[in-house]
Amino acid sequence: MSAGLPRTHARRAAVQALYHAIVNEQTPIGKDTLDFVSAENSEKMDQKYFTALVEGVSKEIDQLDAELAYAVDRSLSAVDPVESSVLRLAVYEFMYRPEIPYRVVLNEAVELAKAFGGEKGHKYVNGVLDKMGSKLRSVEYQAAKAQKNKK
Description:
By secondary structure, the chain is mostly helical. The protein has a single domain, classed as N-utilizing Substance Protein B Homolog, Chain A, CATH 1.10.940. The chain is 73% helix and 0% strand. Helix 1 (6-23) crosses helix 5 (81-96) and helix 5 runs parallel beside helix 7 (121-136).
């Protein structure tokens, strides 16, 4: 993960806020959580993108969870809170931020899972998002697979 990309830092802070909300059973995400996470990352991140991600995931959480049911092998509540936060964020970007390329969403999510998740959490995230990408971004997904097969 690049040290200087404002959107990367916004995603990182958003995962922290979403995780905090899960473990503290906080719905909606409290202003104190948002203030704490954004203050910790404020100089490095795209504040508007952070706010858009957290608000978007919070607003669309039922839809995101319904979509994720297609690809997860258990109840989302049984998935590690870090991984479920990363998955929700990535699926939100797949669905609502079409200007962000499929590969960028996937790579950023895997890096977030590596940074914050369990030892093999990034592999789980990668597998779930591979399925989600084929469903939600089929054209980009097929193009990425075709390019990978050329190598």
